[in-house]
């Protein structure tokens, strides 16, 4: 065995653990590029070093971790088209001959859309939506969501369905469950607070604790 | 380097009963496909967060490390070469290095290597979908072999493998000659390697 091979093999374990620095490391890597035998030797130790990392205990990631990673890493999703705006714009494509009639019909909507945009701009928000809160097929309240900084939801439950409702959670598109610890229905049946997730990523808001055991649910895709 | 795009994308499987491979999920993550990206993060977040917490000991810092790990994986997914290693170990190497950087930058109190040794001696792993490498019983034998190492060898091994300490740093820390530390690390690694070769 030549001296370079001997030197490299002596430090094979150190190389695999990544604890060789500077000139020593540079010399070893240069040698490894040309010596398949030494490379094979270091690779065996590298497999071991990999296995050591896999022994570390798995821990449950904090609530909302997945969403935070995806929000940070992935390109921002295109904002949902607003249904109200779509209704406004569709007539704009109508024939020129009908323009005057269409304009007359949609003018209130145009004013409303403009006001909506102005309100959101004022508060640096992107979207405000409302969804039906249901128990089975019955409407039992309304959930309002606001996409901004911070994003928040406000929940209103009809009087006949407030009793016993004590817990609220969001379920995101990826299945993560985010409990809303601030949730507590006040005397008027309302409760609101900030949420740690983009409302566009929420699929369901669920209230629990009703005496009959059936949750009250709002589907954000409705 | 084998281009990542050569890995067959089976994103449709994400929603089905068949578990897509780690490599397929990584490829989907790299393209920014939200569902595949979510499945990728979900598959590895426990491991990445667990390793980060093992090293930095503070949940908030461990979360930062884990988050940055996934961000780097997203940015550098094209550098992953399936012939050179597994997705899981590539991911954990990034997490380890980031966690070590954080402990140095923030000058965190050094962790007692015996605490880490005790934690890695307990099996709480969930095998991955495409888990290759050691089988669970083999991994158990590796844990047992680490436990059987003399205390000074185990300490040197943990300090280097998990905390990125060089032999010189360990020499200064423990006030023992550099040559002695190198021998401890290399002897420990050789014993464990021999243990692994039994599995092959």
Main attributes of the structure:
heterodimer; A: 222 residues; alpha+beta; Immunoglobulin-like; 3 domains; four-stranded antiparallel β-sheet; elongated; B: 200 residues; mainly alpha; Rna Polymerase Sigma Factor, Chain: A; Arc Repressor Mutant, subunit A; 2 domains; 9 helices; 66% helix; 0% strand; disordered N terminus
Explain how this protein is built.
The complex is a heterodimer of chains A (222) and B (200). Chain A has 222 residues and is α+β, with helices and mostly antiparallel strands. Chain A has three domains: 3-54, no CATH class; 83-122, no CATH class; 127-219, Immunoglobulin-like (Sandwich). Chain A contains seven helices and eight strands. In chain A, the strands form two sheets. A four-stranded antiparallel β-sheet of chain A has the order 1-2-3-6, with no helix packed on it. In chain A, a hairpin with a 4-residue loop joins strand 2 and strand 3 (152-157). Chain A is elongated. Chain A starts with a helix and ends with a strand. Residues 81-106 of chain A have low confidence and may be disordered. In chain B, helix 8 crosses helix 9. Chain B has two domains: 1-109, RNA polymerase sigma factor, region 2, helix turn helix motif (Rna Polymerase Sigma Factor, Chain: A), CATH 1.10.1740; 110-200, Winged helix-like DNA-binding domain superfamily/Winged helix DNA-binding domain (Arc Repressor Mutant, subunit A), CATH 1.10.10.10. Chain B has 200 residues and is mainly α. Chain B is globular. The model of chain B is unreliable at 1-17 (pLDDT under 50). The chains are: A alpha+beta (222), B mainly alpha (200). At the A-B interface, helix 2, helix 4 and helix 5 of A face helix 2, helix 3, helix 4, helix 6 and helix 7 of B.
